Amino acid sequence: xxxxxxxxxPQTGAVAADEAGDVGAPDxxxxxxxxxxxxxxxxxxxxxMVADEPIPAVxxxxxxxxxxxxxxxxxxxLAAEYRGEHGGRPRGFELRRAGAGWxxxxxxxxGDVVGRFVVDGQTSRLTQAALETLAVVAYRQPVTRGQxxxxxxxxxxxxxxxxxxxxxxxEVGTEPTSGAVLYGTTGYFLERMxxxxxxxxxxxxxYLPDLEAVEGVDTTDGREVGP
Length: 227
Fold this sequence. Notes:
The protein is α+β, with helices and mostly antiparallel strands. It has helices spanning 39-49, 57-64, 68-82, 111-119, 128-140, 145-152, 157-165, 187-193; strands spanning 93-98, 101-106, 143-144, 169-174, 181-185. The strands form 2 sheets. It has a 3-stranded antiparallel β-sheet. Strands 1-2 form a two-stranded antiparallel sheet.
C-alpha cells in the first residue's frame, strides 16, 4: 500500500474543522463524494484501502469533505457489512477501530491462510538494507519507523513493510507522546535466528545510538517522519 499522505493528492477544495473537531461544510469548489459511482461508502473504502495505520475519523472526514458524525456512521455501517450483518457473506477482511483510528485488517478466521501466504515460500535473501533495518529494530525495540529512519539516515518505510510481510517484525503498540506505531521483532524472527530469546543476541547494541538521540522525529498523529 502507498504510504503517501493525502497531501500528495491534488485537492479540489478546502475543508475547515470547528473547535469540536467536526469538519465544516465543503466550499463550492469541493468535490461531492456522494456523486461518485459507489457514493460516500465507496469513497471511504478507497481511502481505507491505502491506509497502512489506523486513521482517525476526523481525518477521514477531512479527506471526504463530510461531517465527522456522518463518517463515524459510515464506518460502523461498513464494519457491519463486512461482518455479514446486512445479509451478505462475511468478508475475508474486517474494519476495526484501533486506538484513535480505523483500519482494514484480514479477518482473524483466515489468519492461518494469510500467514502461510505471507511467510511460507519466501526463501529469497534479505537485502543489506533490510538486514540493517532489522538489526535496529531488534536491538532498539520497541521503536518507531521514524526512529529507525533517523538511525539509518534513510527512509525505511518500504523495508519495514517487507520485514512486516515476512513476519520478522510486527506492531507492538504506540509511542505515548506522539502516538506513532511501535515495532518489535516476532517469535518467527527468533526462530529464523536460532535464538530462544533476545538476550542471546550478539552484543551489537552499544554501537547503535540511543533512542534519546533521535527523539522528536514522530508527528503527533501517529505518522512517522522519515528523512
